[in-house]
Amino acid sequence: MKITIVGAGFCGLATAWHLLNHPQFQFASIQIVDAKGIGGAASGIATGLLHPYVGGQAKLNLSGWEGFQATYELLQIASRELKQSVFSDGAGILRIALSAKQLIDFQNCALNHPMDVEWLTQEKILSWIPGIAPAPALWIKKGLIVYSSLYLRGLWNACQKRGAQFQKQHIHSLQEIENNDYIILTMGAQTSFLPEFSTLPLRVVKGQILELAWPDTIPPLPVAVNSQAYIVMSKSKRTCLVGATYEKKFSSAEPEKEIAITEIMPKAQAILPFLEKLPVVNSYAGLRGVGPKHLPFIHRFSSRHWILTGMGSKGLLYHALMSKQLVKAIAKSI
């Protein structure tokens, strides 16, 4: 059996891993195809905030903890493969309440999920992170920072050891790869650019992030901070990542630093005012595919064609769980 997966991001590599470990596909030939290489698109630049309270209202996402656990299992596999951790499981994630609506929403989250999150006073926050805006916060205690490119490299190495192959190729139409028993599209936003899937219910959104040089005179943030923007230390602790834009209209898929600065920095400076003085050392951009109701979906296009897409900003949370469900669905259909 020959199976080709188009897309080498979170969903593509997770799907390959679950296929390689499913008894029904143990003798299958698994090939991943991507024009930009392993993690070369949006997944590779993802800032990597993993928790099940994604969204402005901090509500527990549908199957949120199941998704978290499924991703955590793959993080462990990638870490073992690289013999180093691909994530930071330190102090969790802080969601700072800077508006009246956030104050209500975040407090409700703390009341509804006391085992997972905690409401912290502004005095506690100020003692924890000097220089931060004086506001209370929701503390997601189990939240992780995932170093996305490192994670993808580790997961790919694990897949490769099990026999997966990779080909760098731009797919313009399914006709180019029709000599397969199964074709699985995990291309994110790029899925709708194929002529066969131009009518999928998928919105394409551009997201940009900035990388700022972190000063030697200020200790690195002990925790990821999120409000209307997020601020996350890089693995080296010499820079921080700040994001993100949510551009429904854009003229280019490439980074546009000035647009990113204009949209991101006022929101980030509302959290940490001293960010205004930090130089921008890089900018990144990626396209996200957003599904109906902001939820990912599995679509069976034909007996041989399957699609997993629509992750939006929840790719890290849902990719492992959804890819496992996809593989089970394919196995059941045979």
Summarize the structure.
The chain is an alpha/beta fold. It has 8 helices and 17 strands. It has helices at residues 10-20, 42-45, 64-82, 100-112, 122-128, 148-161, 257-271, 315-333; strands at 2-6, 29-34, 49-50, 87-88, 93-96, 117-120, 137-140, 144-146, 165-168, 182-185, 203-213, 224-226, 230-233, 239-243, 280-290, 297-300, 305-309.
List the helices and strands and how they pair.
Layout: E1 2-6, H1 10-20, E2 29-34, H2 42-45, E3 49-50, H3 64-82, E4 87-88, E5 93-96, H4 100-112, E6 117-120, H5 122-128, E7 137-140, E8 144-146, H6 148-161, E9 165-168, E10 182-185, E11 203-213, E12 224-226, E13 230-233, E14 239-243, H7 257-271, E15 280-290, E16 297-300, E17 305-309, H8 315-333
Parallel strand pairs: 1-2, 1-10, 2-9, 5-12, 10-17
Antiparallel strand pairs: 3-8, 4-8, 5-7, 6-7, 11-14, 11-15, 12-13, 13-14, 16-17
Helix pairs in contact: 1-6, 1-8, 3-6, 3-8
Descriptive tags:
alpha/beta, 6-stranded mixed β-sheet, 17 strands, 3 domains, 8 helices, 8-stranded mixed β-sheet, 31% helix, Rossmann fold, D-Amino Acid Oxidase, Chain A, domain 2, 334 residues
Describe this protein's structure:
The chain folds into 3 domains: 2-85 and 147-202 and 292-332, Rossmann fold (3-Layer(aba) Sandwich), CATH 3.40.50; 93-141, no CATH class; 203-290, D-Amino Acid Oxidase, subunit A, domain 2 (D-Amino Acid Oxidase, Chain A, domain 2), CATH 3.30.9. Helix 1 links the parallel strand 1 (2-6) and strand 2 (29-34). The relative contact order is 0.20. Helix 1 packs across helix 8, helix 3 packs across helix 6 (148-161) and helix 3 (64-82) packs across helix 8 (315-333). The protein has 8 helices and 17 strands. An 8-stranded mixed β-sheet has the order 6-7-5-12-13-14-11-15, sandwiched between helices. It has 334 residues and is α/β, with parallel strands linked by helices. InterPro entries: FAD-dep_OxRdtase, FAD/NAD-bd_sf. Residues 3-327 form the FAD dependent oxidoreductase domain.
